[in-house]
Amino acid sequence: MALEKERVCVTGAGGYLGSWVVKFLLSKDYFVHGTVREPSDEKNVHLSKLDKASENLKLFKADLLDYDSVLSAIVGCTGVFHVASPVPSTTVPNPEVELIEPAVKGTFNVMKACHEAKVKRVIVVSSLAAVVMNPNWPEGQVMDETCWSDKEFCKTTKKWYCLSKTEAESEALEYGKKNGLDFVIVCPSHILGPLLQSTVNASSSFLIKLLKESYESMENQPRDIVDVRDVAEAVLLAYEKPEAEGRYLCTAYTMGIRDLVDKMKSLYPNYNYPKSFTKGGQFMTSSEKLQRLGWSYRPLEETLIDSVESYRKAGILN
Ligand SMILES: NC(=O)c1ccc[n+]([C@@H]2O[C@H](COP(=O)([O-])OP(=O)(O)OC[C@H]3O[C@@H](n4cnc5c(N)ncnc54)[C@H](OP(=O)(O)O)[C@@H]3O)[C@@H](O)[C@H]2O)c1
Fold first, then answer.
1. Can you give the pLDDT of all 318 residues of the chain as single tens digits?
2. 188 lines ligand 1 (CB under 6 A)
């Protein structure tokens, strides 16, 4: 008799990171329940084309704010990868409704459903946005898993996405601890790398704009970068390694945007890069804890080249 495959659920299966997590889980012979808001939407078609999707991927229509829809997707699963959360490309008119509520109540609903369905382990995808927004952190001191973004600072500076991720992660932590759930949190930095989906997500759109927009001047802000495939590996590692616990920062390279542009120019000289830079801040982060768990990351060149080639193939750079 064939062995029953392990069932796991991925929320936000059709998104940028979610698609890679689904792809890697299918390649490792998991049976995947993927949540999408609209299964018939053209933007989710790529999922059915993934290897083994026809046998081992089942899509569930679920909105994070609709508890019953979330629970239906999670019932029967031993593991859950909570990836879904709004990630806007631009400022949103109503952050409470568009960002904070789906992130925070959505995380609560997922954690509650995991508890009800007796899920063995939950992986929550948070973000460096929940870690680094702290004006009082001493410049030059490395940030690690003990660091949290300052919610008041996020509010006063209107960094609503950072606030949504900080509050969502706090929610996961509080619910998970109170209810004895086995959960692990992964906080990726700015994710780049090839697209599986046909739409452009916010973090890829940042790189596309650097190539196309010919900005007169840009602030030389610090960027931490990690490859989407390495983040997907990290969340699988956090799920599969029994000793994984707590939070893990997941980042590979720190650089100013000016250095990133210089790197891009050396690989692809002929795009319309920003013309000049103004001074920006800096921060330093470390993924040592994740590396001790067995995580490694690919060279930056590979991420940048595979990103650009995937945009070219999709006709996005024309
Ligand atoms: N990309 C980055 O640089 C980065 C860095 C750190 C952390 N992260 C985190 O990684 C996760 C995935 O981000 P991504 O870059 O892959 O973004 P993405 O492509 O925009 O994916 C976000 C996903 O969340 C889903 N979603 C949003 N609101 C929802 C709701 N109310 N109900 C159900 N699903 C909802 C979206 O579904 P629809 O397709 O239906 O809209 C989409 O599948 C997020 O938690 C994000 O905060 C991303």
1. 557 899 999 999 999 999 999 999 999 999 999 999 999 999 999 999 999 999 999 999 999 999 999 999 999 999 999 999 999 998 899 999 999 999 999 999 999 999 999 999 999 999 999 999 999 999 889 999 999 999 999 999 999 999 999 999 999 999 999 999 999 999 999 999 999 999 999 999 999 999 999 899 999 999 999 999 999 999 999 999 999 999 999 999 999 999 999 999 999 999 999 999 998 877 899 999 999 999 999 999 999 999 999 999 999 998
2. yes
Contact 69, 112 (CB under 8 A): no
- If one residue of 17, 45, 59 were mutated to test the ligand 1 pocket, choosing by the most ligand atoms within 8 A of its CB, it would be 17
Question: Does ligand 1 have an atom closer than 6 angstroms to the CB of 130?
Answer: no
> Which residue has the least CA distance to atom 44 on ligand 1?
85
CA of 18 to the centre of ligand 1 (A): 8
Q: What is the pTM of this model?
A: 0.98
Residue with tokens 């997590």: 21
Joined together, the tokens standing for residue 143 give 């940030």
Catalytic residues: 165
Q: Residues 176-206, buried b or exposed e (16+ Cβ, 10 A)?
A: beeeebebbbbbbbbbbbbbbbebbbebbeb
